[in-house]
Amino acid sequence: MKNTLRRLVVRLYARRVEGRLDTERAPKHIGVILDGNRRWAKAAGSTTKEGHEAGAAKIRDLLGWCEETDVEVVTLWMLSTDNLNREPRELEQLLSIVEGAVRDLAADGRWRVHHVGALDVLPERTRRVLREAEEQAGDRAGILVNVAIGYGGRQEIADAVRSLLAKRATEGQTLGQVAESLSVEDISEHLYTRGQPDPDLVIRTSGEQRLSGFMLWQSAHSEYWFCEAYWPAFRKVDFLRALRDYAARHRRYGV
């Protein structure tokens, strides 16, 4: 009875927050650090595998909320390069769950799917799933969902510079010529998210108040919102609070 009453109160509060939301100031690109699956599982008396599965299931809810508020791009940090150093059995389970989540996104029919990360650090099976998901999702009109898998912010910048140098070398430029003309825009054109708007808002769950290398280049002028809830327990009301807080801020863009 108590839990039912609590859920009812939360739903009513969420409607109130949503009703007062300034949709004209909603972010167009949201980055989300999906943190806290293992800690949620431990607190719930569940297994780590069940925690990752619950986190994967929450993605569909988030994207549905984003559709309701006209968000255009969502970047989900699903697997970092550091995660690849986990104990082999847990890593195998995590990769399998991540692959299943990506397949579900592509099969849903509402969203486009784009991988951001270093493919060469991932197993061939995972690379194949990512390629097939991008092809299946195609150029749909819905939200562009960036799945950050095998992703690290420093690695992305290093890969961007490497790609830029390789391109300029094929054009016959010397290293000195590249250094003389190099601009911020040149590097941006070689990021995993090239051609996309930078994230307006970055959300991190689980109470951690750090970026851990997430979208280091792109988030230079992003607003941040840190939530105490573990990712599997992230609610619509938490999402709406993040949007409300974002809408109330005056973005200065470093000025």
Describe the structure.
The chain starts with a helix and ends in a 7-residue tail after the last helix. By secondary structure, the protein is an alpha/beta fold. The mean pLDDT is 91. A 6-stranded parallel sheet has the order 3-4-2-1-5-6, with helices on both faces. Helices cover 49% and strands 13% of the residues. Helix 1 runs parallel beside helix 9 and helix 2 crosses helix 3. The chain has a domain at 27-152 and 201-248: Undecaprenyl pyrophosphate synthetase (3-Layer(aba) Sandwich), CATH 3.40.1180.10. It has 9 helices and 6 strands; from the N terminus they run H-E-H-H-E-H-E-H-E-H-H-H-E-E-H. Helix 5 links the parallel strand 3 and strand 4.
Key terms for this structure?
255 residues, alpha/beta, Undecaprenyl pyrophosphate synthetase, six-stranded parallel β-sheet, 13% strand
Shape: globular
Termini separation: 52 Å
Overall average pLDDT: 91
SS summary, helix count = 9
The low-confidence runs, each spanning 5 or more residues with pLDDT under 50, are: none
Strand count, sense and barrel status of the largest sheet are: 6 strands, parallel
Q: Name the CATH superfamily assignment of the domain at 27-152 and 201-248.
A: Decaprenyl diphosphate synthase-like
Stated plainly, the CATH topology of the domain at 27-152 and 201-248 is called Undecaprenyl pyrophosphate synthetase
Main sheet: strand order: 3-4-2-1-5-6
- Beta-strand level of the residues, as a percent range? 5-15%
CATH architecture of the domain at 27-152 and 201-248: 3-Layer(aba) Sandwich
